[in-house]
Amino acid sequence: MSRAKPKPSVDAVVIGRNEGARLAACLASLKGQVRRVVYVDSGSTDDSPLIARAAGAEVIDLDLTQPFTAARARNTGLKALKADPPDFVQFIDGDCELREGWVDRARHFMHDNLRAAVVCGRRRERHPDASVYNALIDAEWDTPVGEAKACGGDALMRYQAVNAVGGYRPDLIAGEEPELCLRLRARGWTVWRIEAEMTWHDAGITRFGQWWKRTERAGHAFAEGAARFSTPQAPHWQAETRRIWLWGIALPLVALLGSLLHPAALLLVLAYPAQVARLAGRMGWRAALFNTLGKFPEAVGALRFHARRLSRAEARLIEYR
User: Fold this and answer.
1) Whole-angstrom distance, CA of residue 168 vs CA of residue 176
2) Backbone angles phi, psi at 146, to 5 degrees
3) Element (H, E) at 156
4) Range 108-135 average pLDDT
5) How far is 127 from 135, CA to CA, in rounded Å?
6) What is the predicted pLDDT for the residue at 321?
């Protein structure tokens, strides 16, 4: 009598700092879905490490003598799995909860798609009605189903593939997942978004300043990705960066300088409400407004990247909460 073939093993790498109750909920959601959990703590001053140990997770304190990045934290967790490597690793942030049944759905997809290195599903905001910013983020997570170019911080990955390309690029303060996916796809692997509920996320953004900082970080990621990793064969965030330079820098600068010659140049700013109206038909008025307004903090982030690059200064995380 033949024995049933064991299910492919899945381990989880959780990263976080001062997540408290959210971390407890995250770890509870992993029970029964993964074999083991590695939690990498990035200098918490609350009880997060104690919470993780009580939940049965292996706790690793990130070396903070080097600048913190989420990529470094994820690599640290990945390295901890090396002695007894799993077939798959579920990466998840400490402010997220894994949905029931997600791992089985993702694992079955990987079994049927042997060139798939990454699979992600629908990440949803836990409290989309708490603020306009949370609602915008919830819509941001609703990406198209099918083969994709990149994933977010939560995803199930084939351990062999991620380990073979060296994991995440540790010096990136943002945009580390798309860059990893870029290298995986260059090796012939594929990235997928499937029609399945994957995680709850708790952004906790209730103030305009938080939204501004988060959007600024996105601009930094776009500019760095385009400058460092884009090639003619595999363009990376070139279109996003062009839009930042046009709407966030060039247009207001031309309007301002042009007004010194003739006040009519200020009429160029009417391009912004026109852009909002154009986008509203596709994404709704609220999203169109913030998409257009967001080009200004994105421009700040892009300029910040290039200033750092010229000065050769170390990258520092742009935090929004």
Assistant:
1) 6
2) 125, -170
3) strand 155-158
4) 96
5) 8
6) 75
Sign of the alpha-carbon dihedral angle for 297, 300, 304, 310: positive
Q: What is the pTM of this model?
A: 0.92
Residues 6+ apart with CB under 8 A from 228: none
pLDDT score of 5 more than 70 = no
Measured from the Cβ of residue 315, the count of other Cβ atoms closer than 10 Å reads 18
Q: List, in order, residues 6 or more apart from 47 with CB less than 8 Å away.
A: 20
Q: Tell me the residue length of the chain.
A: 321
- One-letter amino acid of 135: A
Which contacts of 251-260 are long-range, i.e. CB under 8 A and separated by 24 or more positions?
Answer: none
In the block, tokens 């971390």 appear at: 23
What is the widest separation between alpha-carbon atoms in the chain? 89
DSSP per position, 172-218: -SS-HHHHHHHHHHHTT-EEEEEEEEEEEE-----SHHHHHHHHHHH
CB 304 within 8 A of CB 218: no
* β-bridge partners, 89: 11, 157
Please tell me the distance from the alpha carbon of residue 107 to that of residue 32, in angstroms, as a whole number. Answer: 14
CA dist 104 to 7, 34, 110, Å? 9, 10, 10
What domains lie within the chain, and their CATH numbers? 10-206 (3.90.550.10), 225-311 (no CATH)
What one-letter code names the amino acid at 141?
W
